[in-house]
């Protein structure tokens, strides 16, 4: 059974959704027959590559919230993440930017069976360690920490080797009508958006497997 998950590496709900889905999968009796594929999505593909700005300033503009309101949003997000065993540090130091290159490395990692490790490393770097996902040297270092060869990672970014793969994922997301992530498609039969509770993922996996067995 194939599960496709569209996400963006700067989306705090995507990391939470990943953990919740993993908890559901741990309790799924057929988990050994499940194949997961992480797909690329950009919350803001219009951002210039290589340029960064304050994440909180972006949130204030996007949601028309005050600095105090965004601070409260961050505090609630940190607490929600902590309940899932994740350590978030959402501060004034956090930057945001274009995630296209980060997604290219996730695509590269997939060719080495390290896609989950790469995605996990990017999430932890951004949300826990407040590291940049927007300059190539930082990304190459993180790729090495995830188990990839740094020379290959650097060359892949320079050559834009996986740009078409990322673009295909983004285009498919548009065709599916995806407007927010995380977005899960299970066996091509069911789709669910958002960091749903574990129980919802449990039901989704069970229903998809039962229908698969009957077809």
Describe it.
The chain is α+β, with helices and mostly antiparallel strands. The chain has a single domain (2-214), classed as Glutaredoxin (3-Layer(aba) Sandwich). Helices cover 54% and strands 12% of the residues. The protein contains nine helices and six strands; from the N terminus they run E-H-E-E-H-H-E-H-H-H-H-H-E-E-H. Helix 1 links the parallel strand 1 (2-7) and strand 2. The longest helix has 17 residues, at 67-83. It starts with a strand and ends with a helix. The mean pLDDT is 96.
What is the H/E string? EHEEHHEHHHHHEEH
Lateral arrangement of strands in the main beta sheet = 2-1-5-6
Beginning-to-end CA distance, first to last residue: 13 Å
Q: Tell me the helix content.
A: 40-55%
Sum up the overall morphology in one term.
Answer: globular
**Number of discrete domains:** 1
Oligomer: single chain
Radius of gyration: 17 Å
Could you tell me the mean pLDDT?
96
Q: What's the CATH C level?
A: Alpha Beta
Coarse structural class: alpha+beta
Low-confidence stretches: none
Strand elements, count:
6
Annotation field: number of helices: 9
Quick structural gist:
This protein has 215 residues and is of the alpha+beta class. Helices cover 54% and strands 12% of the residues.
Annotation keywords:
single chain, 215 residues, alpha+beta, Glutaredoxin, two-stranded antiparallel sheet, globular
